């Protein structure tokens, strides 16, 4: 089983404005860590540049900032050469925007969608036309980037899209996407909570699929105890897809503001380890626990 600790990503939240309006968006919680002014952004980029060579610009939606391209220039000026962005991809439906972003030197694009079905995707984004723009964005990036592996797709899993994961992954794969990250939604809203048992079935279907050969799937934020052994095992020779696991991780923020500590504490307070079930768990050192909201769905955690 491949598990990885998330590398320090110097994730910088530069805005909470967004052109989508996702139902479970954690923007309110990010109020603690968003940069409050252009000056704060520039000072933080400078500080990151003096310590490291990589950054991830995130939001909200970073691409709708008027100074988006200047921010990339600013990173370059401060010797940061690995620049990632997290985006809903809608601005990338404009080819010129993609060309300019690539030319400026962005080296990683993590694009979030929920489904390739309009009703599901836009039922979550609450934004008309958001799916068509994100899909066009994916196509444009794959067409214009020298290395299509620059693009990774985030899919946050919730009750609204869990039954559509297989079909969405297949469609993205047929577009040429090579790496998909399935992420557990962090929520206590029953509208979005689903059964981990269902997810276990979905992942079993994914790893058995022949048509997905060559794709890389990362499972982020799920306690490993919910998966069958064959999913966790690396020795399955028939498996055609690469699969790995990583924990949810709030320790990715690099910011001048000390409220980052409060943010991390609040984030961690949403998770717990059940003394009865977790004691002696072989995955314990790689797991931040299970969401407290999940403890209500007792049957979700596999024995
Ligand atoms: S520590 Fe607990 S929640 Fe995490 S994988 Fe082990 S049993 Fe599951």
Task: Note the main attributes of this structure.
single chain; 303 residues; alpha/beta; TIM Barrel; nine-stranded parallel β-sheet; two-stranded antiparallel sheet; 34% helix; globular; binds iron/sulfur cluster
> Between the first and last Cα atoms, what is the distance in angstroms?
19 Å
Give the oligomeric state: single chain
Radius of gyration, in Å, reads 19 Å
What proportion strand? Answer: 15-25%
* CATH fold naming: TIM Barrel
Helical element count?
11
Sheet with most strands: strand arrangement: 1-9-8-7-6-5-4-3-2
**Fraction in helix:** 25-40%
- The whole-number mean of residue pLDDT values reads 90
Tally of individual domains: 1
Present as ligands are: iron/sulfur cluster
Order of helices and strands: EEHHEHEHEHHEHEHEHEHEHE
Shape: globular
SS content category: alpha/beta
Biggest sheet overview:
9 strands, parallel
């Amino acid at each position: 089983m491949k598990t990885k600790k998330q590398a320090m990503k110097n994730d910088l939240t530069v805005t909470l404005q967004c052109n989508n309006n996702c139902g479970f968006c954690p923007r309110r919680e990010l109020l603690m860590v968003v940069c409050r002014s252009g000056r704060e952004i520039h000072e933080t980029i400078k500080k990151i540049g003096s310590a490291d060579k990589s950054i991830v610009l995130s939001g909200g939606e970073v691409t709708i900032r008027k100074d988006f391209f200047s921010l990339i220039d600013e990173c370059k000026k401060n010797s940061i050469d690995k620049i990632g962005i997290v985006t809903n991809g809608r601005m990338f439906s404009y080819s010129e925007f993609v060309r300019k972003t690539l030319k400026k030197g962005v080296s990683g694009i993590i694009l979030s969608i929920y489904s390739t079905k309009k009703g599901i995707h836009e039922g979550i984004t609450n934004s008309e036309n958001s799916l068509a723009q994100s899909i066009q964005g994916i196509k444009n990036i794959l067409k214009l980037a020298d290395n299509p592996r620059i693009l990774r797709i985030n899919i946050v899993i919730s009750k609204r899209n869990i039954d559509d994961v297989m079909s969405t992954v297949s469609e993205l794969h047929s577009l040429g996407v090579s790496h998909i990250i399935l992420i557990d939604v962090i929520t206590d809203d029953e509208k979005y909570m689903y059964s981990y048992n269902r997810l276990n079935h979905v992942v079993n279907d994914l790893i058995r699929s022949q048509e997905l050969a060559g794709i890389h799937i990362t499972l982020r934020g799920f306690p490993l105890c919910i998966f069958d052994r064959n999913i966790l095992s690396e020795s399955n020779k028939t498996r055609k897809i690469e699969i790995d696991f990583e924990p949810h991780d709030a320790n990715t923020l690099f910011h001048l503001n000390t409220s980052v500590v409060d943010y991390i504490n609040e984030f961690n307070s949403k998770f717990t380890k059940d003394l009865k079930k977790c004691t002696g768990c072989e995955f314990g050192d790689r797991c931040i626990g299970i969401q407290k909201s999940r403890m209500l769905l007792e049957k979700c955690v596999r024995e």
